[in-house]
Structures are given as C-alpha cells and as structure tokens.
Amino acid sequence: MEFSAARAELLKELDLVQGVVERKTTIPILSNLLLEAGGSSVRLSATDLELGIRCKCVATVKKEGSGTVPAKRLLDIVRSLPEAEVRFKLLDSQWVQLTCARSSFKLAGMARDNFPVLPSIPKAQASLPARTLETLIRRTAFAIANEESRYTLNGALLVLKPDTAMMVATDGHRLALIECDVRVGGLSNELRMLIPKKAMGELQKILGGAGNETIVEICRDDNHLFFAVDEHILIARLLTGQFPNYEAVLPRDNNRIIEVDRAAFSAAIHRVALLADERSHAVRIQLDPAQLEVFSSSGEYGEAHESVDVQYGGEPMQIGFNYQYLLDFLNVLSGDGKIRMELKDEQSAGQLRPDGDEPYRYRYIVMPMRI
Amino acid sequence: MRRQILHVDMDAFYVAVEQLENPALLGRPVIVGADPGGRGVVMAASYEARRFGVHSAQPIRLARRLCPHAVFLRGHHAKYAEYSRRLDELFAEFTPLVEMVSIDEAYLDLTGCERLHGPAFRAADCLIRAIKNRIGLNASVGLATSHLVAKIASDQAKPRGLLYVLPGYEAEFLAPLPVGRMPGIGKVTEPQLLSLGLVTIGDLARFGRDRLRARFGKLGEWFYAKSLGQEGETDPREDGPKSISHETTFEEDTNNVEELQRTLSWLSQRVGRRLREHRLFARTVGLKIRFAPFRTITRDATLDEPTHLDWVIFQNVLQLFENVFDPGLRVRLLGVRVSNLEAGVFQRRLLDAAQTDKLSRLAQAADQIRSRFGFEAVQWARSLERGGRAVREGVTGQARLRPGAGRT
Asked: What is the ipTM score, two decimals?
C-alpha cells in the first residue's frame, strides 16, 4: 500500500471516524483505523463493534493495498502537519511510514486481517434530505437516557412514512418528539427503527458536514442499520427492545397556554439557575396574568428570581422544573421566535413547542419536579 | 395561657382487653404474645405476671421460663384496634386536640377547656372514670404543662393512678428522677451524662445551661430546657428518620415462596405507611433475609424516582428477593427497609406518572381508612392470608421524643 492525500481532506475524514474508534483498549485492533487504497481514493474504516464507519478520501494511489494504524496517533499527527501532501507507505511487519514536507513518522500497525469485517450495505430502503434528518436528531438526541433502565432505551425511535419523518426520544422524565412533512424516497409503507444514542451523535456529525441538497440513504438488515451520506457510511447495530408507549403520555388537556419569547425565557432561566440547588436543579415557575417569574434557591449560596413578560390569561399557578430540561429544549431552537408552554397543573406533564416552525411539528413534554 | 396537657396511658392494655372479655383471667398472670414454644416476643403482661420479671418485648421463651404457670394468649389485633378506636372517640368528647401516639396511649390538650370540664384535674378524674365505666379498662393519667412532664407523670402514676404536676413545680417533680427516664436520653447519651456525674434530671438542671451547651452544643440547651420541664423547642437531633424498616421472624423457618412473598407484601405496606406518615419518599429499598440458622443477606435497590408507595416498594423488594432466594434453604426472618429518605424536591417520572398518581390516591384512601379502623382494616390481597407476624420494627436515626410504643 502506498498513497498520498491532501492534508486538509484527510483531516476532515479522520475527524469523522474518530468518534467511532474504541476508547478502551481491551481489543487493541479496535483502536486502529483500517486504510484501504484503491483506484483514486483511500477508504478509512473504524469500528467499536457497536458502530462502524467508512469514509472515502481522494488520493493518488501508487500501490493498492491496505494496512492499519493507531487512530488517535494518526489524527494527532495529521492535525499537527503543515498544509501539504501526506504520503503513506506500508513497510514490513505492519509498519506504516508517513511523510509530509520535512517530517517523517513510522507507525506501528497491526495485521490487517485482524480488523473486523464490516457488513456490506444492502440496497437503500428509504432516502430523505440530510438536513431534515439532522434537525430530527438535533432536536431529540438530548432527551435520550444515558443509561438503559427498566423504562427507557438509550436510543431514539425513527418512523419513516412516504410523506413524513418522525423521531422521538425519552429518558423517562421528558420526551422530545418531532415530525416533519417531507418526501421520503423509496418507501411504500412504514419503516421503523431504533437508533442507538451513539449512532445518532456520529450521524449528526456526518449530516452536519453535508451540503444543502445532500440526500441520506437508509436501510436495515436483520442486525444492522445503514446510513449513507455522500461517501460516508455509518453502520449501527440494531437496538433491540420496545420503545415506550410514548403516545400515552402526550398531554391532551393542557389548557393553560403561555406564550413567551424564547430568547428572553432562556436567558432568564440561565441566570436564575446560577443559584439553583446543585443536586436537584430545581427552579420554580410562578405564573400570573401577563407575567412569568422564575425562582431558584440553593441552601448554600442564596436565591434568585427573574420575571419575563408573557401572554397568559389563566389562573395563577406555580410549577417546578429541572432547569436543565428546559434549557435543553430552548437551546436547540434558535432565533427570535416565541414558544408556547402548555400546562395543566403543578403535577402533570407540561408541553413546550416553538411557534412558526413549519414544516416541523416539534413538541417537548417534560414532567415537573415535586417541589 | 398556661397549657394543660393530659397523657393517658392504658394499663396493660392487651391483657386488660382479654380479661375484660374473659373475666376468668382476672387476677391471674396473663401474657399476650407469640406462640410460647416459638421465638416471638411478649406483647403485654398482666401485673401478676410482671411480678415474675416478665415484661413486654421479652423473648416469649424466657417469659415461659420465668412464669410457666401464666396463661399465654395470642394477640387479637383487630379487637385491640376496636378498643383503641372507642377510646379515641371517648377522648374526643373531652377535647378536639387528641393525639393518639399508639394503640393505647394518647395526649389530650385540655388548654382552655376549663369552662367545659372545670379544672383540668377534675376533667382528668372524669376521664379515668369514664374509661372505666364506659369501656371497662384502667388507665393511668399524667397532667402537666408539657407533653414531657405529663408523660413521665402518667408513668409514675401507674397503675390506675392520676398524677398532677402543679404548674411551677415541674423542675422539682423531675429532679429526683434518673436522667435515663427523660425521653430523648438513651443508651448513647446516658453514659455520657453519667460520666459527668449527672445522675438525676435535677443534676442536669443544676449543671446549668452554659456548661451543658459547652459540652453538648445545641443538644445541651435542649437537655437543660427539658430538665426544667419546658417545652417548645424540638429535639435538635430530630431531623427525621434516616431509614424505616419492618421485620418478621417466622414462627417456623419456611421456604414456602408464597408465604414469603405474602410477608414481603405485608412488610412493604407497613413501611409505605410509615413513610407517608413522615411525609417522606425513599430512594433506596432494601431487603433483609435470614436463612436458618443465622446467615443474613441484605440487598438494596436504588430507585429512579423516590417513592412512598407500597406497590413500588414491594415490586423492588420482590425483585431483590428473587435474586437471592434459594429454595433449598429455609428462611427464618424477612425485613424490608427503606433509606435515602427525601422530604422535598425530586424529578417526577413521565412514563408512569398516570399509574403513580393512581397508586398515590389509593394509598391516601387506604391511610384514611387505617387511621380510623387500624392497619389491618384494609390491605393488598396478597398479604391477607399471612401466617407470620411482624415482631420488630424500627425507625432509625430518629430521637423519639414521645415514644409510640409505651409500656402497657
């Protein structure tokens, strides 16, 4: 194997694959990247056995072939290099030589045959704009539980229909659900899949780098999910289990409607949260006609409150929330828009949604705290 | 206005109820408790039996050795609860401020009732007679300006007595009593006081507020106030219980899964009730299991959302039980314990909120029924045919100012 590639191109791809590389070193080969040079490109692959990624980088191939190199070291080296051609050459005993301008490195690789075989991608079953999927992920991924529990999965549910895409995630305390009217290609009926949290993160990175018109192709086999974006392929082990019955918790009769400016609300919570209890993260929201007030108090440091103008004509009430849960939602939205907060009483789930968000229908359901 | 607190304590309550329903037992040593051949404890003993050294909470086998000719009876809780309810009704005729602290013990606040009953002393006398005439039981009564002094006074008055500590004489009344008699001074603090030469409550008062504070901090001030019979401040140590537990020792070791599960259901309900009484929620649920002869295992589960619900406690305990239970071994004791108690703020769960709210309403309704008709009045079906009986229960980490389980 012998090839050269532009440093900038290479770095872009190395950044993308890095997240998939196994950080623990229990299986040494998994902290390596597989490099495969052929035609006019080099293919980079990484896997932690849960997730696999394949990228392509334009290259001048002098001699076809493949080898593995330590992923983290390679990234650090390429990052530090000047903007120039980077040459790779496989030497004896799995050594890989890397030269660029006046620098030279010799990396200890491992036998290529030890690298796990990534499954090959079947025919695409559905396709939709990369932008759309990126928004779906960005607005739900934060609500995924970090650990799997009796009630939740650490993944989100994606449901594709010929003209809608829907994604929902929950950690048992809050739930983010987003739907979008979009033409989903190649689909005659419904396609449902559970996407693991880590895959969502990596996918979001790939989608974020894609152009406006880029299409993502999706398919699944019995064990894996495949996402293809341009020359990038992400392969995820299918999450098994039952997604919670989220429809049962969607509020139906929350008739206390509050309209509030998103940026002002977010800033107020941000400030007041500085003196919230560090363990519980609780803030208290007091609602009065035309005004909303956020209160916090920490036994150790003091207390704070701030008022925000709102449109609200109902009865006064107060309700407690984990401020982080509110900020998570407010932060994935941007711009000057308003949000609607729909409440029932101090112990029932509240619903938040942005105003003027077409073609998306986005709702965030968050359970209050007992205060 | 000067407070008038009455402490009513029934004399040998369980035994007295049995004697009332079966006069042949009168004048004989009677012991109510577990199977005398088994390993339970004495719940109550008549004064005739006490002469032989029998007392409540004593292992029943020991009681049988001390007093082999006694009449041994198994307890009839439903019956005692019924008498307790009648007592409660009678107390309510005297004052609306009745605090039943256990099945056979209550505080009545008679402050300001002079126009109704005349002087408090006469009201107390009336009450004792009413209990005797209308229910047929003997009670001992202490009357004083504080709960603490009234409680000690009723104890001094036993049996069938009335002791009135005149206002202004509280300190004098308490002075000769040993420090250990003061509720809140127990096996930890008593030796510390004794080592300072403080033997009686009067010694405490003379030792002085400043020196007590220097020695024991806030607690010292509290000792001082109590030694003078003053009330008002709460025990500084009393920041609520740290854990709540209930245990059952089986009459016979068993590996009958259904019986064990029934018992766990029952224990979970006891613990849940106590949690709700303290207005607390538990984040940790624990199981204690002792296999015969004495190998004890404890296991804890941490909950996502703190709970005070019997059902949630039971489900978790059941899971722990299934993990450790070995059908080849017999179980001697089971216990359920909750800890990591929280009073206030926590995040509620979304996905099962509807069910949690339903269970909360159920628990609330059950508690209301139980506060009128006793714990056994309503329970989960699973625990109805329970064989064993809870013999030991405890709230740890709490200094008990007014112990619920008084002497009978």
From this structure: 0.76
